[in-house]
Design brief:
mainly alpha; 7 helices
Length: 214
């Protein structure tokens, strides 16, 4: 990918993360913010929206750092483990889902509380990962299916760790939704930017050859 398209890719991810964070922030803490909307308190709405926008930029940047880190790890995994890399990814997906449910239950569950609520998020991430992995495989090739599931489940969970420790429901949703949207966008949009960069390089090469021929 050339620099121009990388900047476009990065800025579009930032914009998506920021907007989604604003919407999610107001929705997740509606009881806190609804008074501002009912009374049309535009100053407080703007102040809080600006704060949520800034938080969204941070989450989007974290998402992109996680994505490029994963691309590096994925390359190493393919190079080192070869055909075993897919089974290893499935194993890590299962391990992450178990940890996400088990440790949150151990640390935050009240006495006699059921484990079922703590299973919902891992199951949701897994089902979403399957859907995104399917779309990714349809977009490129079947070999990217596991990578798509792995990225949505494992990498998103790792990016989400800072608020998982607090178990604050508002923050859990405020961070998770922008991360998922940004991660999904990057996973599905990157091929378009790579193809665009390839076309621009070919056009540049053609212009150079044409100018030399003259």
């Amino acid at each position: 990918m050339n620099i121009r398209n990388w900047v476009k890719f990065y800025l579009s991810t930032l914009g998506i993360g920021a907007v989604v964070a604003v919407i999610t922030g107001f929705a997740a803490s509606w009881d806190k913010y609804k008074e501002y909307f009912f009374t049309l308190d535009w100053v407080n709405i703007f102040v809080n929206a600006s704060w949520l926008f800034g938080v969204g930029l941070i989450f989007a940047t974290l998402s992109q750092m996680g994505y490029f880190a994963y691309l590096t790890v994925h390359r190493f995994g393919l190079g080192i483990f070869r055909s075993l890399w897919n089974p290893i990814q499935w194993l890590l997906i299962a391990f992450t889902m178990f940890d996400l449910a088990y440790f949150r239950y151990q640390f935050f569950a009240k006495e006699n509380e059921s484990v079922l609520p703590y299973l919902l998020i891992p199951i949701f991430l897994f089902l979403l990962g399957l859907a995104i992995g399917y779309l990714k495989a349809q977009q490129t090739n079947k070999s990217t299916f596991v990578a798509g599931v792995f990225f949505i489940v494992v990498v998103t969970t790792l990016e989400w760790v800072p608020v998982l420790r607090t178990n604050d429901q508002g923050w859990l949703y405020l961070m998770l939704v922008p991360l998922l949207v940004c991660n999904t966008y990057q996973l599905l949009a990157l091929p378009k930017y790579l193809e665009r960069s390839k076309q621009e390089r070919e056009q540049l090469k053609a212009r150079k050859e044409a100018s030399i021929a003259k």
